[in-house]
């Protein structure tokens, strides 16, 4: 729970920021502030940052209840803690400089951020890389279009890394975990959360990272003590092209059952296998 100190709002989550990360945030914010406001910029310090983050989180709580952010500073109907802690104008200034998310650039960042981390460890010649995707990426999910696309993109990236790294003896596998988190604590019943502990996911990760494990380019679903490997299957399909006439939509219609028949389906694992089997 938040509590008010003289001129400072502190929350457990904001006070737990790693010093190195906090230092980077402060340096970049102050640099941007100086570039934007020049000599009029008042340098942000640790207290300012923690105060802002605390107010930002608290404002989110009230906004979820239908209260507009600006109204929280209103002299008559607002919340006293906001007026007493930081001026609204300064809060807006920090918000312009500390941009935590951008829905337009989010899909690209889902990929590039992960790739940057892989480049860092790749140069150190690690032997095992574990990527994390989601069931939403594998199967899709209502209301998660951008998230699903990004997570399936992670699987494609991992599959390519498994090919690129093979000649260097670097393996790359992907997990799709089902686990409870702080975000789901308020929407899942306690008994379900108890069965979705991270402890039921970690053993798979540890094995995939072990020097004796030679698995490569694979995808695993894991959660609640269950682990299963996923693979692609492709129906035998049907040859519709004929030398005597063009291929038509009616040809597709007439062979639809055969096109969709997975009896004795092919288990395609590589793009080469996909191409040459055609």
Report what the structure shows:
- The protein has 278 residues and is of the alpha/beta class.
- It has helices spanning 12-15, 19-37, 46-63, 80-85, 88-97, 106-122, 135-139, 145-166, 190-195, 202-209, 249-254, 256-259, 271-277, and strands at 3-5, 8-10, 128-132, 171-177, 219-223, 226-230.
- The model is unreliable at 1-15 (pLDDT under 50).
- The strands form 2 sheets. The protein has a 4-stranded mixed sheet with strand order 3-4-5-6, with helices on both faces. It has a two-stranded antiparallel ribbon with strand order 1-2.
- α6 (106-122) runs parallel beside α8 (145-166).
- 47% of the residues lie in helices and 10% in strands.
- The radius of gyration is 26 Å and the shape is elongated.
- It has 3 domains: 3-97, no CATH class; 106-230, NAD(P)-binding Rossmann-like Domain (Rossmann fold, 3-Layer(aba) Sandwich), CATH 3.40.50; 231-278, Helix Hairpins (Orthogonal Bundle).
Core attributes:
3 domains; Helix Hairpins; four-stranded mixed beta sheet; PGBD; 47% helix; alpha/beta; NAD(P)-bd_dom_sf; single chain; disordered N terminus; Rossmann fold
| CATH architecture heading of the largest domain | 3-Layer(aba) Sandwich
The structural domain count equals: 3
Q: What portion of the residues fall into strands of 2 or more residues?
A: 5-15%
Strand neighbour order, sheet with most strands: 3-4-5-6
Helix content: 40-55%
Annotation, overall tally of beta strands: 6
Shape by Cα distribution:
elongated
CATH topology call of the largest domain: Rossmann fold
* Overall average pLDDT: 83
Secondary-structure element string: EEHHHHHHEHHEHHEEHHH
Low-confidence stretches at least 5 residues in length (pLDDT < 50)? Answer: 1-15
Distance from N terminus to C terminus (CA atoms, Å) equals 61 Å
State the fourth-level CATH superfamily of the largest domain: NAD(P)-binding Rossmann-like Domain
Protein name: PiggyBac transposable element-derived protein domain-containing protein
InterPro entries: NAD(P)-bd_dom_sf (IPR036291), Peroxisomal_Beta-Oxidation (IPR051687), PGBD (IPR029526), Sc_DH/Rdtase_CS (IPR020904)
Domain PiggyBac transposable element-derived protein: 24-128
Keywords: Oxidoreductase
